[in-house]
Amino acid sequence: MYTIKNATLGDIPLIRELCFKVWPQTYAPILSQDRIDYMLEYMYSPASLEKQINEGSQFIFVYEDGEPVGFAAYLLKGHGIYKLDKIYILPSQQGKGTGRFVIDHIINEIRKEGATALQLQVNRMNKAKSFYEKFGFVVIGFQEFDIGHGHVMDDYVMEKKL
Questions:
Q1: Kind and range of the H or E element at 96?
Q2: Are 79 and 113 in contact (CB under 8 A)?
Q3: Which of 14, 69, 75, 122 lies in the 20 to 30 Å Cα band around 24?
Q4: 3-state secondary structure (DSSP) of residue 57
Q5: What is the pTM of this model?
Q6: How do 58-64 and 117-123 pair as beta strands?
Q7: CA 69 to CA 14: how far, in whole Å?
């Protein structure tokens, strides 16, 4: 049985622990180790996570039988549009419906706030694109942006109307 818990600043160590169990192997097939190391520091350092939480990102954990098996983060972009900023599920949990449970939870929560759409970005080389398409997300654009030190994010922007 899955449960969801909202994260606080005190949960940053758990976010990082889960991230380091999922993130590197998720991106190893499509990103260099140098880029993975840079992006982990850029997005998942304690200072970066604290800033994200303080600026309105709602981090949540998903638990199975009391054990944390993944996390996600979402935030309001504006005008009823929310962004699913992160969703990472332990490899041992993938394919078991855990990701679906998390996305359904987020959609239920943001609908209460009047959300009209949920957007996300996914690397153009990431096989997760097909995962999102199963939930009704469609590509609405492309985004490239420089994150520093010669690293560029090259993403699909996807959206699900609510």
A1: none
A2: no
A3: 75
A4: coil
A5: 0.91
A6: unpaired
A7: 11
